[in-house]
Amino acid sequence: MEEDFEMDDSNSVSAPEDGSISINNVRKDYRIGKNSVTIFSDLTMTIRGGDFVAIVGPSGSGKSTLLNLIGGIDRPDAGDINFGHVRIGRMSESALTKWRGANVGFVFQFYNLMPMLTAEQNVELPLLLTSLTGRQRRERVETILSLVGLTDRRKHLPSELSGGQQQRVGIARALAGDPKLLLCDEPTGDLDRDSAEDVLAMLRILNKDLCKTIVMVTHDDTAARSAKRVLRLDKGRFVEREAA
Ligand SMILES: Nc1ncnc2c1ncn2[C@@H]1O[C@H](COP(=O)(O)OP(=O)(O)OP(=O)(O)O)[C@@H](O)[C@H]1O
Ligand SMILES: [Mg+2]
User: How many structural domains does the chain have?
Assistant: First the structure.
């Protein structure tokens, strides 16, 4: 049974690095020429650090927009988004880029891998922006590819991998910087049932064992059942549904 989502949780006091996200009275408009479309006029919600939240809702309801706001790719027109005690909506562009690199991993429906780079080079890519040495980068990549079960495919190009394997590379790349937060936009949307289940099992492990906070947009009820909470976004507001 659906019930109105209790908007804020004043009992959840969060340490800065605990990975909690609070979205306070956020407004987001898109302007195209003289026209403006309001996606959210007053959106408020809290996601605790270590949670695994699925966001469902009709096409066009603003799910991807919300992930982009949480991940600091886009900015709200009004209101605040906080990650722990860090107000990400107010950061300078360069501070935001740095923050994103250290704190957020993105996983996309169509993987977004670089086609001319091998699996290990794709995973290493975000690390080129860090101060890690070549050797440290290679060790990190090796560990992560082993975590996602792709050590034997590390020299393969994306075109030489199945969809499920490409998505595991996508997850490995998202994990490269050891972020607290994983934002996944329909991560199983392009996969068959078995590959989707592998990816979901991996996300559950990352949440449970490595304490990653996961926000996953999905159209897939089975995928949503992997989450601890399901939020339905519709007409600019949230309705919470108990995870099955
Ligand atoms: N860059 C943009 N400029 C203008 N309008 C945009 C832009 N990005 C998204 N929109 C509009 O904002 C609304 C929400 O888009 P969004 O991509 O967030 O929806 P969604 O819930 O992720 O949909 P889907 O399930 O189809 O992926 C849509 O009406 C879309 O047309
Ligand atoms: Mg979308």
Answer: 1
Residue 165 alpha carbon to ligand 2 centre in Å:
22
In a domain, 240, yes or no: no
Query: What is the full per-residue pLDDT of the chain (244 aa) written as tens digits?
Result: 343 333 344 333 334 456 689 999 999 999 989 999 999 999 999 999 999 999 999 999 999 999 999 999 999 999 999 998 889 888 889 999 889 989 999 999 999 999 999 999 999 999 998 899 999 999 999 999 999 999 999 999 999 999 999 999 999 999 999 999 999 999 999 999 999 999 999 999 999 999 999 999 999 989 999 999 999 998 888 887 755 5
Enter the pTM of the model: 0.91
Do 59 and 109 touch, CB atoms closer than 8 A? no
Classify residue 168: in a domain, yes or no.
yes
Q: Evaluate whether residue 12 is within a structural domain.
A: no
Q: Residue 78 is part of a domain; what is its CATH number?
A: 3.40.50.300
Name every protein residue with a CB atom under 6 angstroms from any ligand 1 atom: 30, 32, 39, 57, 59-65
The answer to whether residue 174 sits within a structural domain is: yes
Beginning with the edge strand found earlier in the chain, give each strand of the sheet holding 229-234 in spatial order. 3-4, 237-242, 229-234, 52-56, 213-217, 181-185, 104-107
Ligand 1: distance of its center to the CA of 105 in Å? 21
